[in-house]
Amino acid sequence: MKFFHTADVHLGAEPDRGFPWSRDRSREIWESFRNVIRQAGAEHADLFLIAGDLFHRQPLARELKEVNAMFASIPETKIVIMAGNHDYLKKNCAYRKFPWAQNVFWFWDTVPKTLEFPDLGVSVCGLSYDRKEIAEPLYDPIKARGSQPFQILLAHGGDEKHIPFSKEKLLSGGFDYIALGHIHKPQVLVPDKMAYAGALEPIDKNDTGVHGYIQGEYRDGVLRTRFLPAAKREYKKLKIQVTENTTQFLLEQAVKAAVRERGEKNFFCISLEGRKEPGTEFLTENLYALGNIREAEDKTFPAYEKERLKKQYEGTLLELFISSFPKESITEEEEKALDYGIEALLEAGEENQ
Ligand SMILES: [Mn+2]
Predict the structure, then answer these.
(1) Number of domains in the chain
(2) Non-local CB neighbours of 26 within 8 Å, separated by 6+ positions
(3) Measured in whole angstroms, how far is the alpha carbon of residue 182 from the centre of its chain?
(4) What pTM was estimated for this model as a whole?
(5) 69 and 212 assigned to the same domain
(6) Are 199 and 304 found together in one domain?
(7) How far is CA 248 from the centre of its chain?
(8) 81 and 149 share a domain?
């Protein structure tokens, strides 16, 4: 028995609205989903699990027509789907009214139900969200009560407002595999037993790192799972170290090189770090033209020559302040505090003049 475990596809999302790549991303999310469906068909997967938030918001009827056509294109594969907190089941929502293909199986209730697939030897237990937030730990008391030898729990949540759960309680429920959704970062909580598939494609700048889905195979009483990267692009944090020699020109060269090295198609959140020459102002807005730059922050601070400043500002608060720090073996934290303090005092001094 082979299954695909996907979650948090967020079809219909428009990541980074206002940035030039936003519309491409909307399309890429659909494309990635279509690719995984195609892959499931090519590999004759028995089960395709969707652990919530297939859509980013309430889906439109025509969008459901689109996904349903994809589902129908792999009739050998049973699609098991739950609604998450983003695409929760409203009373008369499009999800409920849609005429789903024969191989699509839904959880229509917040009360846990078990779907039996005797031909596969699999039971899948699950529920759906009917509202944006559910603070009750609905999963904790659930026990594997299916009648098949292999039992799956399909679940979405894990934070305070979205069905918090205790890992230990879930594990004591007797399930062979717990397919989780909601947390966008893929993570294995217990190897071959309990995992977040993560978002198929990253949805916002905090979804850094690889994204994809999980494949599982249960054979001769043993389950083996593996994560498969599937996302077209990644968000990456990019720290650029500056020195007293860094100029705007050199900075831009460094950013260009780093973007090229990490893959130009990816998205970057840049932070400038280190100690710059006092008086230098980096133009972070110029960096946005150097790639898919999602964010550029200047976290540098000026490298002051303390001894010279002490002499220059003898008898002032500034001299007192600098002297209050040890001269030798100063920690990095202290050095930062010292430089920030100097900057503040110098600025205050300028205002008073
Ligand atoms: Mn969610």
Answers:
(1) 2
(2) 12, 13, 14, 15
(3) 9
(4) 0.89
(5) yes
(6) no
(7) 32
(8) yes
> Ligand 1 centre from 9 Cα, in Å?
10
pLDDT digits (tens, 9 = 90+) for 189-242: 999 999 999 999 999 999 999 999 999 999 999 999 999 999 999 999 999 999
Ligand 1 centroid vs 74 CA: distance in angstroms? 26
Using the mean position of ligand 1's atoms as its centre, give its distance from the Cα of residue 17 in Å.
20
Position with higher pLDDT, 201 vs 308: 201
Q: Using the mean position of ligand 1's atoms as its centre, give its distance from the Cα of residue 139 in Å.
A: 15
User: Where a domain ends, among 182, 213, 229?
Assistant: 229
Residue list, CB under 5 A from ion ligand 1: 53, 84-85, 182
Segment 146-160 mean pLDDT: 97
* Cα 67 to ligand 1 centre (Å): 19
Structural domain boundaries, residue 313: 235-352
Distance (Å) from CA 60 to ligand 1 centroid: 19
Last residue of a domain, one of 229, 260, 285: 229
Q: Which two tokens stand for residue 343?
A: 């900057």
Label residues 244-265 b or e (16+ Cβ within 10 Å = b).
eebeeeebbebbeebbeeeeee
Count of helices and strands (H, E) across the chain: 8, 16
Residues 218 and 240 in one domain: no
**Quick one: 262 and 199 in the same domain?**
no
Q: What is the CATH number for 130?
A: 3.60.21.10
Do 154 and 19 lie in one domain? The reply is yes
The pLDDT confidence band at residue 329, using thresholds 50, 70 and 90, is: confident
